[in-house]
Design goal:
This protein is mostly helical. It has one domain (18-295). It has 15 helices and no strands. Helix 2 (10-34) runs antiparallel to helix 12 (221-246) and helix 4 crosses helix 10. The longest helix is centred in the first third of the chain and has 26 residues, at 69-94. The two termini are 16 Å apart.
Length: 297
């Protein structure tokens, strides 16, 4: 009966759509980078790609905004934190040794940050199951922190030769974890649609930092299209996430559930990207996915 209630809940289906959009974003971003588009330029395209979705929503809403300074501030903060995470994600994906499945698994652990902050700031209760999820998440991070190409050593200083993609991935972990809190705060004051529009404004604050140093005509058209599509998918996914929260979903459940996009990525990456993972990385992915599932209960 409990499952039937969840399946009938609007927030659940909004969360599913969000999950699919986020998984698709990872694929198109990796494909764009493989076309030779640098990660800063990909983020530049991402910003402009996010605009049509925001404008379409603005048109549908009839240019109506709620006048809440707190809501607007939280919405822009979501864009700034989310944008920092997106740029770091592209930086991680651009590393030649960066495996998309592994990167998606570790960045998908951002709900551990959201859940902890929700307990501290929003006074939501942490269950024993979620505590187990945090322990599994920590295990996954330790596994991913080791460079699989480094020879095995009993010395921690040698064994923990951190792969190049790991550092930007941890930035994603922290920034997206904080985003979950500000998303919930924003939708307490303004609608999901308004939040997404102000989030887009937050994205545009990054434009001076990632303005391309060379003409876009120097890049393959398909790569540019992937960059623009990534922005559209992310904004669409964000709207679904905001809608889930506005429809009654708890941040400590919705945020971890939508972070299950690594399940889609791990399943499809071998087919779409022709990538494989090591046995140890596979264990890490399993720990990460299990952690996300437990954190969402």
């Amino acid at each position: 009966m409990a499952a039937l209630v969840i399946f009938k809940a609007r927030w659940f289906w909004y969360s599913v759509l969000c999950l699919l959009c986020f998984a698709a974003y990872l694929f198109v971003s990796k494909l764009g980078l493989k076309q030779g588009v640098p990660d800063p330029t990909m983020f530049y395209l991402f910003i402009w790609g996010s605009l049509p979705v925001a404008l379409a929503l603005l048109t549908v809403r009839g240019l109506h905004f709620e006048k809440s300074l707190k809501g607007i501030s939280c919405g822009i903060t979501v864009g700034i934190l989310g944008g920092a995470g997106q740029l770091a994600m592209l930086n991680a994906l651009a590393v030649p040794s960066g495996n998309t499945s592994v990167i998606s698994a570790i960045t998908g652990l951002y709900p551990m940050v959201t859940v902890v902050l929700a307990v501290l700031l929003l006074r939501e209760r942490l269950t024993r199951v979620q505590t187990t999820g945090l322990l599994l998440a920590t295990t996954a991070i330790v596994i991913f922190a080791r460079d699989p190409s480094a020879p095995f050593s009993m010395s921690w200083t040698r064994a923990l030769q951190v792969p190049e993609w790991f550092r930007p991935a941890t930035v994603v972990l922290g920034s997206w974890g904080a985003v979950g809190i500000f998303q919930k705060l924003a939708t307490n004051y303004i609608s999901a649609g308004s939040t997404m529009i102000w989030q887009t404004l937050g994205f545009f604050l990054f434009l001076p930092l990632v303005y391309p140093s060379q003409s876009l005509s120097a890049f393959v058209t398909l790569g540019l299209a992937y960059g623009l599509l990534g922005g559209a998918l992310t904004n669409l996914g964000s709207w679904f996430l905001f809608a889930a929260l506005k429809s009654g979903g708890k941040v400590s459940i919705v945020a971890p559930f939508t972070a299950l996009y690594p399940l889609v990525v791990v399943f499809l990456a071998p087919l779409i990207l022709k990538e494989s993972i090591t046995l140890v990385q596979g264990v890490g992915v399993l720990c990460a996915v299990a952690a996300i599932v437990l954190l969402s209960t």
